[in-house]
């Protein structure tokens, strides 16, 4: 935007300072803002063709499938313009189909099936459109070595054995597009197979001639289909060197008597050249190839827009079904393209397809599964980043691939404000006619300089002018922040449009004031001549001191809890024991350890009563882990209050931590391993108990034994004593009889 107010510029401001963002100009109190806006002008907007149920059939040029057809975009740099295009597949849209067939020897069985194709295909296509034309062409190879044999006999009949073949040729237009299917059958029936030496064929030469020879082929401005039928690969640009042909294909028609006559002179076309010509003439290609070459032609399909590949049976008996399927596939997809992209603008697409499916990005220009009568919409955004060097309008087209219709878009760039066209030539406001007055400032005539063209380049000396641009002797011209123009400083413009130099000598600026929190004037003021002008309720050199005391009110309603003073929106605690934004935190007061014990335990060991709610209730903690108690910060070593705590956890283990409050955050150092009482050794205890019981048993047994021995000895001694003291009577018992009886043998004689 630009300000055209007369007295808008301040002292030292350059003319370029009139241009800025709209909001900035309003803040600078501009009264007349020039802010031209872009717009869309529809020049031609014929509605898409609706269903035609009348008796009169529409001509192709009367059918409209895309709307609008012509529009103008008034484009301003950085301001995108979006317009919508409608596309609707018309019913009963005419179709031209040209059948291009490889007539090399390997296709001899295919030719028999193609001879009846005309009437059969005509009958099937009539189900899709009532206006259908069909044509036929054939190709073999370039008529030079090493592609064909140039011996006289082989030129007459290139086939071996008893086969009767026609002479080799590059391309022949057998039948111009016609509505007569019988004529197609008759002429195709007259064709003969030919032959060549190498496997790849010269089909690219034929495709190029079919594309560019519009009149000879009979193409109309309708849907154009080219069916390319072969069972071999293809030669392309560069292969002609094998036959000594080095001149690139010129992409022009060279048919004489329906025969391509320059195959020996021009090389094969490149794939890119074919893509260009097929797209230029809106021809959709169907490659009907055998299974062996499917992969090759599928790669080719990816390079040629609006093309399809079908698998051809060995004898081409499925060619009609292949054509119908390929046509349905091609016609159900709509892809927008802009062949010539405008140099000064970018284009992006967004498609709203069938069933409200939205595509953006790379697929934004595409819709699939479109049936006859379906309507889709494309939103196209055009944006210019800068004005073209010449400022002239640009024209480009947008067209659906494979269709003749296109949309013409005219880009009219807005490079000047409206006030530039209403200037006052030789205005008295510009030093008595020394310049034109435009948009609030003077545009000086040749040889004049200055804000109002008041100086002549030939009548002034640089030394005199420079002296007027110094604040005092010894200082730089315009404080080294501007240029001295006609004795007046014009301050330089900064890369950042929000930053500017000002003042008579460009000694001021609005970006070199004090900062707070990396914000100019703390974000609470404006910078004027390197000094902060603070907003209400803020003070300080960087406007970083708030005069609001609401942030200092403690939970008890007192300012700083009655233990400090509120300065710059924060509390300064007078009692060193208290901390925090409102002097309510006291790290060294009794009960602090118990109060924070549960949070320290859950944060460190993931145990305790708060282990399930730790993240919610223990947020304001900054935790540091240490190896042992000796690494805990000591209270006497710190410049802020700190306390050492010892608490027990749920396992009756002791853990140590230090607690302090720093920058409104609870700072905790904790010993990572708690001290737990050692558990008793069961085996020694059991062994000791058993041993004790055994020893006590043995001791009791020994004591009992000892007592029994002592008792027995005492009893024996007593017995002995009584025995000694006893007096016994030695008389015989009168009733005693001896137990011994002596008997004398009477016979004994003592011998």
From TrEMBL:
Residues of the Integrin beta subunit VWA domain: 1-417
Which InterPro entries did the record assign?
EGF_extracell, EGF_integrin_1, EGF_integrin_2, Integrin_bsu, Integrin_bsu_cyt_dom, Integrin_bsu_tail, Integrin_bsu_tail_dom_sf, Integrin_bsu_VWA
Q: Where in the cell is it found?
A: Cell membrane; Cell projection, Invadopodium membrane; Cell projection, Lamellipodium; Cell projection, Ruffle membrane
Q: Which UniProt keywords apply?
A: Calcium, Cell adhesion, Cell junction, Cell membrane, Cell projection, Disulfide bond, EGF-like domain, Glycoprotein, Integrin, Magnesium, Membrane, Metal-binding, Myogenesis, Phosphoprotein, Receptor, Repeat, Signal, Transmembrane, Transmembrane helix
Picking any one GO molecular function of the record gives: fibronectin binding
Q: How is it placed in the membrane, per its record? A: Single-pass type I membrane protein
Disulphide bonds in the chain: 3-19, 159-165, 213-253, 387-645, 415-419, 430-442, 439-478, 444-453, 455-469, 484-489, 486-521, 491-506, 508-513, 527-532, 529-560, 534-543, 545-552, 566-571, 568-614, 573-583, 586-589, 593-602, 599-676, 618-653
Q: What PROSITE patterns does the database record attribute to this sequence?
A: I_EGF_1, I_EGF_2
> Does the record bear Iron-sulfur in its keywords?
no
Residue span, Integrin beta subunit cytoplasmic domain: 705-751
Q: Which GO terms describe its biological process?
A: cell adhesion mediated by integrin; cell migration; cell-cell adhesion; integrin-mediated signaling pathway; muscle organ development
- Tell me the domain of life: Eukaryota
| Membrane spanning residue stretches | 682-704
GO CC: one term?
Answer: melanosome
Domain (Integrin beta subunit tail): give its ranges. Answer: 593-681
Family label: Belongs to the integrin beta chain family.
User: How is this protein named in the record?
Assistant: Integrin beta
UniProt organism field: Xiphophorus couchianus (Monterrey platyfish)
Which gene name does the record give?
Answer: ITGB1
């Amino acid at each position: 935007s630009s300000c055209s107010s007369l007295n808008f510029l301040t002292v030292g401001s350059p003319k370029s300072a009139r241009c800025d963002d709209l909001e900035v100009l309003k803040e600078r109190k501009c009264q007349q803002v020039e802010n031209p806006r872009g717009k869309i002008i529809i020049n031609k907007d014929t509605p898409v063709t609706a269903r035609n149920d009348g008796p009169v059939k529409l001509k192709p040029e009367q059918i409209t499938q895309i709307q609008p057809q012509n529009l103008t975009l008034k484009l301003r740099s950085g301001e995108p313009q979006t317009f919508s295009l409608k596309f609707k597949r018309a019913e009963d849209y005419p179709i031209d189909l040209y059948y291009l067939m490889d007539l090399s020897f390997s296709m001899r069985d295919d030719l028999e099936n193609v001879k009846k194709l005309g009437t059969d295909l005509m009958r099937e296509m009539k189900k899709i459109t009532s206006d259908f034309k069909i044509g036929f062409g054939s190709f073999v190879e370039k008529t030079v070595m090493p592609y064909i044999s140039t011996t006289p006999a082989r030129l007459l009949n290139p086939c071996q054995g008893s086969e009767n073949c026609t002479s080799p040729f590059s391309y022949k237009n057998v039948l111009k597009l016609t509505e007569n299917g019988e004529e197609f059958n008759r002429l195709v029936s007259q064709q003969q197979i030919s032959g060549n030496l190498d496997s790849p064929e010269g089909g690219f030469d034929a495709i190029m001639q079919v594309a560019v020879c519009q009149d000879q082929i009979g193409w109309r401005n309708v849907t154009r289909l080219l069916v390319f039928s072969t069972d071999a690969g293809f030669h392309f640009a560069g292969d002609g060197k094998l036959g000594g042909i080095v001149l690139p294909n010129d992409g022009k028609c060279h048919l004489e008597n329906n025969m391509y006559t320059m195959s020996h002179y021009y090389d094969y076309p490149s794939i890119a050249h074919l893509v260009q010509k097929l797209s230029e003439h809106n021809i959709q290609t169907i490659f009907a190839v055998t299974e062996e070459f499917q992969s090759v032609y599928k790669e080719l399909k990816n390079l040629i827009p609006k093309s399809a590949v079908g698998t051809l049976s060995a004898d081409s008996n499925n060619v009609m079904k292949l054509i119908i399927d390929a046509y349905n596939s091609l016609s159900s997809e709509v892809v927008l393209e802009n062949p010539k992209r405008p140099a000064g603008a970018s284009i992006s697409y967004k498609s709203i397809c069938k069933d409200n499916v939205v595509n953006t990005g790379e697929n934004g220009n595409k819709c699939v599964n479109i049936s006859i009568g379906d309507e889709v919409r494309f939103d196209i955004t055009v944006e210019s980043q800068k004005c073209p060097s010449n400022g002239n309008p640009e024209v480009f087209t947008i067209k659906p691939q494979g269709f003749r219709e296109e949309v013409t878009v005219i880009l009219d760039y807005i490079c000047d404000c409206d006030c530039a066209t209403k200037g006052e030539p030789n205005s008295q406001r510009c030093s008595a006619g020394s310049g034109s007055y435009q948009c609030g400032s003077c545009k000086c005539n040749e040889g004049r300089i200055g804000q109002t063209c008041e100086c002549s380049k030939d009548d002034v000396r640089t030394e005199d002018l420079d002296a007027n641009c110094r604040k005092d002797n010894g200082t730089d011209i315009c404080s080294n922040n501007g240029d001295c123009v006609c004795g007046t400083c014009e301050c330089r413009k900064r890369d950042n449009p929000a930053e500017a130099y000002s003042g008579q000598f460009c000694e001021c600026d609005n970006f070199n004031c004090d900062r707070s929190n990396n914000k100019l004037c703390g974000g609470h003021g404006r910078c004027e001549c390197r000094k902060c002008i603070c907003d209400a309720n803020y003070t300080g050199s960087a406007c970083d001191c708030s005069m609001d005391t609401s942030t200092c009110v403690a939970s008890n309603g007192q300012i700083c809890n009655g233990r400090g003073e509120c300065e710059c929106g924060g509390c300064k605690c007078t009692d060193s024991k208290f901390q925090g934004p409102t002097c309510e935190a006291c790290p060294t007061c009794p009960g602090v350890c118990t109060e924070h014990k549960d949070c320290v335990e859950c944060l460190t060991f993931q145990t305790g009563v708060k282990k399930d709610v730790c993240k919610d209730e223990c947020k304001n903690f900054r935790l540091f882990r240490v190896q042992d108690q000796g690494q805990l910060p000591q209270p006497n070593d710190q410049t802020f209050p700190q306390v050492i705590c010892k608490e027990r956890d749920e396992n009756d283990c002791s853990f140590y931590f230090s607690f302090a409050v720093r920058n409104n955050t609870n700072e905790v150092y904790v010993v990572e391993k708690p001290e737990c009482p050692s558990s008793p050794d069961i085996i020694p205890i059991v062994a000791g108990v058993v041993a004790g019981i055994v020893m006590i048993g043995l001791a009791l047994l020994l004591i009992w034994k000892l007592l029994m021995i002592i008792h027995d000895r005492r009893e024996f001694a007593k017995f002995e004593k009584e025995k000694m003291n006893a007096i016994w009577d030695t008389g015989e018992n009168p009733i005693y009889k001896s137990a011994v009886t002596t008997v004398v043998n009477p016979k004994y004689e003592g011998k």
